[in-house]
């Protein structure tokens, strides 16, 4: 359960509405998901986070679907329930199929396993991997 | 520093050598990286982990480079030094450019940030994201 | 959902009641929050944890509100739902305003992000930061 | 060991130098710590992260020392070696004494312990803590 | 809430049914817990994970109850709600008493605390602990 | 590298020496490992942590070796280098063989993997696992 109430568009001040408007315009959507309605309690963090996410998730050297898959991978590793749901939805909207989700979770699981095997033995980095 | 000594090919038993041989053959390589030389202290885990990694990282619905990027994302989130180095090397070998690495780390950082913003406000999952 | 039933005052043994009494007396309160009612299944851990929390959270070089803010920061990083709720309540009782909560979560988010940027590049510690 | 080489001022392009200049000017300092010299491989992330950190860590409802203590708490929880060193240095520069550091780490340790006790028993949130 | 629907035996394909059959046969049970019904969306991961768990959790140098206690310890540290419930149930089935659970959680809590105290001071490994 | 210097016996005050003496007496040993020499910067935390560890790790419903194995499992999951080394040494001193270590790390790796598979699918807890 949340630690505050969401701030709906009609109750938002001008600063918050400006961000909400930009979110909807950028996404070609007519609604705002809950994440932003809670961040709105701290308008500077709302604005900064939205501007950062918009910049980071834009097409670049990596395509937006790959970026969403990475977002899901991190969220699953950290077990952020909200983020798992919202970014799986985002990835599906960008073309993630059911088989891609299955393989993604398999890689995330395996990486979490081998991370601990490497931790446990405290495996030293190979010379071949070091930056010269 | 490691909690045991690595098991080199010449000191390995037949079970371990069979895995080492398959690793080198599968990769078209003539060396074994340290991770496997420590797992070799537990030959069943060596074999099972290698078979699992081989299956999980093979081309499928996701291509091998995307899988390596996801591996790096998890390893960075967990701060596994060995895994960060070995999977960045693996991703570079599969085509990751410097710009791709920069963007990947930017996404990983942002996801770790918004995971905590969602945790902190305990944002409830939107109805729109729920599986019907 | 919990993995056991809470132990209420009327069902508690003398050892547990003594801790419950001290909690209420120390806080000037007439109720016990759930955390202690589950720890009561292991009376030694109940007593030890209460004594430790009482000592650690007492006024000292850091004031109690700052200590609660730090507690919230850790709980948000680990995503402990119970702890987020109970320590946000504790921080509010000690004077945390809504703006302070907003800024606190912003710092926690940012720290989680830059932790991963530092991990990802494996940034070496500057000479200037080393203890001489 | 790092996964790339640091980008020094004399080798940086104009975009990176502009950020380096602002860091030094803002801090009234004549050097740049390593974190930024690695982020410089991705100039957009360098600029965005610096702008974000500058905004988040500025005086506000929480004072800058408290924000640094929170940064240390998160970095210790995540075990980010670089961040522990750089933010302990930052906190000392803002007035953290040795006793404050000792108490801070005691709170961080205790919070990590009770987070797991709450997780283990899966303690349900008390009605009194819920937002009405 | 789950991100997909569970795959029940009657709706499962032959590959998935073969795993379900082996789970029930191995456990001498007539039902399948939810974990496997979601993994079934990715039949290769279902099969591989089941084979791995069966191998890892079998009696060996460590007895099965100790292995379940370790599984609970990891799941509590990571706060995986499903895993905490299923492995506490598994440990109880193998003989874990209420006092053993209480002590287990006490150790897990203490380890999470001292891990952060060691992180915070960045305590160097003693010569006596190093592998010669 | 550490964030402070260790406090050796000869430089310690009476409060710290009393704890050092009890550690050596309890263990039948003539040296103190580094962990305590750093905690000594905060004598109250030194004393409280030592008293807590002594109580938690004493023989009880779980035997001391099992407790050390659980400590290693948590430390590996969190990747606390110091703790991995010191508690593997502690476990060996209490009878952990090389095969036991291999199996322990295999269980820790597997638990970290399945924790994320359960997170990723957000698997709901089975009715059968719920406390009635």
Structural summary, described in words:
Six copies of one chain form a homohexamer. The first copy, chain A, is elongated and about 55 Å long. The first copy, chain A, has helices spanning 14-27, 34-39, 43-57, 64-78, 81-93, 98-121. The first copy, chain A, has 132 residues and is mainly α. The mean pLDDT of chain A is 97. Chains in contact: A-B, A-C, A-D, A-E, A-F, B-C, B-D, B-E, B-F, C-D, C-E, C-F, D-E, D-F, E-F. At the A-B interface, helix 2, helix 3, helix 4, helix 5 and helix 6 of A face helix 2, helix 3, helix 4, helix 5 and helix 6 of B.
Percentage of residues in helical conformation of chain A: 55-70%
Average pLDDT confidence of chain A is 97
H-E string of chain A: HHHHHH
Straight-line N-to-C gap of chain A = 50 Å
Describe the SSE topology.
Six copies of one chain form a homohexamer.
Chain A: H1 14-27, H2 34-39, H3 43-57, H4 64-78, H5 81-93, H6 98-121
Helix pairs in contact in A: 1-3, 4-5, 4-6
Compact summary:
With 132 residues, chain A is mostly helical. Chain A is 66% helix and 0% strand.
Keywords:
elongated, mainly alpha, homohexamer, 132 residues, 2 domains, AhpD-like
């Amino acid at each position: 359960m949340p630690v505050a109430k969401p701030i709906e568009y009609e109750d938002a001040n001008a600063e918050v509405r400006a961000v909400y408007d930009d979110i909807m315009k950028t996404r070609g959507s007519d609604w705002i998901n809950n994440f932003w309605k809670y961040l709105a309690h701290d308008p500077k963090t709302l604005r900064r986070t939205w501007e950062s996410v918009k910049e980071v998730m834009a097409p670049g050297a990596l395509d937006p679907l790959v970026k969403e898959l990475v977002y899901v991978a991190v969220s699953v590793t950290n077990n952020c329930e909200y983020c798992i749901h919202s970014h799986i939805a985002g990835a599906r909207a960008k073309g993630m199929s059911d088989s891609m989700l299955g393989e993604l979770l398999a890689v995330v699981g395996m990486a979490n396993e081998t991370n601990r095997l490497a931790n446990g033995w405290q495996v030293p980095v190979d010379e071949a991997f070091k930056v010269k």
